[in-house]
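Prompt: I keep going back and forth on a fold encoding question. Comparing notes only helps if you start from a blank page. Show me how you would write down a chain together with its backbone fold. Please set it down just below, with no commentary around it:
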Amino acid sequence: MKGTDRFFAYFSRRPGVFAAGVGTLFLSTALFLTIPGLVRRAFEDLERTGVTVDTLFRASGFIVLLAAGDAISFYFTRKILIGASRDIEYEMRQDLFAHLLRLPPPWFRKNRVGDLMSRAVNDLSAVRMMIGPGVMQMANTIVVGTVAIFLMFRVSTPLTLVALSVFPAIALATNVMGQITHKRFTEIQEFFSEISNSAQENFSGVRLVRAFAKEGTEERRFAERNREFLRRNLALARLNSLYFPLLQFFVGAGFALVLYVAGRQILSGKLTIARFVEFNLYMLELIWPAIALGWVVNLWQRGTASWNRMMELWDVPPLPEEKDAPISLSPSLEVRGLSFGYVPERQILSGATFRVAPGEVVALVGKTGSGKSTILSLILRLDDPPPGAIQLGGIDVLDIPLPTLRRLVSVVPQETFLFSETLAGNIAFGRPDASAGEIEAAALAAGLGPDLERFPDGLATRVGERGITLSGGQKQRTALARALISDAPVLLLDDSFASVDTETEARILSGLREAAFGKTVLLVSHRMSTLRNADRIVVLDGGRIAESGTHEELLARGGVYSELAERQRIEEEVEAA
């Protein structure tokens, strides 16, 4: 959907609301613009004989009633239009969040979290200001300005032309100001994205910042960026501070011209004082629309700049919507001649072929960068593999709907992520309907038993943002419990025991064998203590399958696996010394 189509789609969902808002605005305008005519008639009555104080009192009272009616009508105009803008903001926020969740994972590798947060919060608020106060004041400017100018022409065409003579200057200043505002506000929002990203990285990496005692350095960097952000905003504010007084000057110049021309007409008898007072009141009604025009242009330029930035997100094609198919597949996993690279000129995997039988535990091992984690991401279709290269239950994973594939395959990623929730909430993330007993059983199978005894609230303990209150090993075990509680017949473990000691690992592996009984398990690890428990080991070297077999068989061959085992033995001896 194009940007303008998507924008007006939000308006088209509530035509009655905006019609009611414009209707109350017309009523407010009609009531208030009736007042100058009443004042003119009161002045004309004063020129006649026999006018009593009661007559003036009734006229004044009627004017007060009209002003009160105008105030009530305009209150409902604001309530309806600004309320609608809040509803649209809510819908846009929901739509944008849903859209971001459906974007392909590779896209997120190229875009920063801080930038996305800035667009989803700051830019969306600027769009809401354009839709709410911007639309309301634009409608008010058009309605009040049009009606007031029409009534001014009825009073005196020459005076109206004189009053409007300053409008070309106002239009020119508004056009120049609008273009500059759009350009500068876009730059400001892009710079704010950098600040947001810097803050997000510091908050996420606060332990690292403290470990290297870089708090002062990061504070200075952040302060420098904030000063630059302040400088850019002040530059735009100074521009606005020149623009609005300039508008007031043009309005004042218009009044001076009208006073001069009208004075000459009154002196020559071509215009009455009563008519001049009426005309002046209509001109007063044009002051706010003229000034509001500058504010509206400012809001619209900021809003359109932010909308363009949001459209950059909406223009990214999301993953196609697929429904979970009620199918049951054999948990056999087969990789056939898999070749893959994130960029065409650099292949990570080249012709990798192996099979994992139902209920089998197969380990992937190899040097850093050999493609182990890439294979797991391709099985999950975080990146799409070549057609026919990966099959689950004899079916190409590309032919399995994503919701179905994710239901059949559970994963413990290399980089553990926990939500700012309780331990139980994190474990049951994939199965919100899991019972307390199932959650506890998964936690025990993942080796969290001793930790639960030390936690003050057990499974109800809150882990903090990204699990900051837990150690690396505790986070890994929580992620493992989250995978084990799933009904998925295929389990992928990406270096899931790297942060636990050997004793804990042995306990987890014992519980894992029981908890994952009957499941097909594909695990990535560098630790010999983990690998020797696998039914079979597949060794990757330079993106190719170098060898395959059991722990003992591979050691006896004296190949790549044997070299890795010997290197790890030496490293362990050095660490022990």
User: Anything to note?
Assistant: The chain has 21 helices and ten strands. The longest strand covers residues 333-340.
